[in-house]
Structure to design on (188 residues):
């Protein structure tokens, strides 16, 4: 695994554990010589994560749409910054650049990004691992909803199992290394 995409908030949230988790994620990436691909902002958990990877000597690639350069305040100290035309282009480029995808605490954008990349995996557009870093139980309600969707017949068990979950970056990375994409098709 050369690069991981991490989706996370452009704010820091109310719990200090979220920022601490960004530091832990950065440490694991740097120790394993894995580059970071992220949304390109200097703010929030995004900025904290990028700064920590850079401070550790790691490589960081940001991908940001032109329209968000000012709003999200693009990070200016990255290894590489890709400025694209749209959010769709951002997500597509992040997918191409990355060998796996992790969501940390964040809002609508974070949730939308991890769900979209999971959908692409379900449709067999890629076979890369997708996971949640469930800091301080942040994603517990989402996980309950997904279990409910499976129980109601809207998610196949094989597809529900595609979303790897852990409380620690090191454990999540270990699970990524042994991930094998399901071969079952969505439509069967």
């Amino acid at each position: 695994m050369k690069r991981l995409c991490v989706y996370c908030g452009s704010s820091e949230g109310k719990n200090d554990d979220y920022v601490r988790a960004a530091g832990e994620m950065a440490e694991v990436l740097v120790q394993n010589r894995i580059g970071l691909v992220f949304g390109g902002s200097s703010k929030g958990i995004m900025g904290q994560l990028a700064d920590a990877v850079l401070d550790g000597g790691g490589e960081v690639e940001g991908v940001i749409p032109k329209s968000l350069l000012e709003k999200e305040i693009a990070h200016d100290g990255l290894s590489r910054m890709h400025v694209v035309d749209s959010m769709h282009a951002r997500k597509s480029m992040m997918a191409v650049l990355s060998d796996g995808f992790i969501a940390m605490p964040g809002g609508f954008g974070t949730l939308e990004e991890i769900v979209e990349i999971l959908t692409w995996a379900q449709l067999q557009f890629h076979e890369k691992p997708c996971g949640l870093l469930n800091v301080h139980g942040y994603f517990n309600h989402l996980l309950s909803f997904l279990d409910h969707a499976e129980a109601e017949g809207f998610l196949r068990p094989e597809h529900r199992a595609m979303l790897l979950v852990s409380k620690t970056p090191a454990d999540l990375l270990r699970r990524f290394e042994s991930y094998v994409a399901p071969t079952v098709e969505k439509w069967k």
Q: What stands out?
A: The beta strands are 3-7, 35-38, 60-65, 80-84, 101-103, 130-133, 163-166. Residues 62 and 151 are 38 Å apart (CA to CA). The chain has a mean pLDDT of 94. The chain has one domain: 3-176.
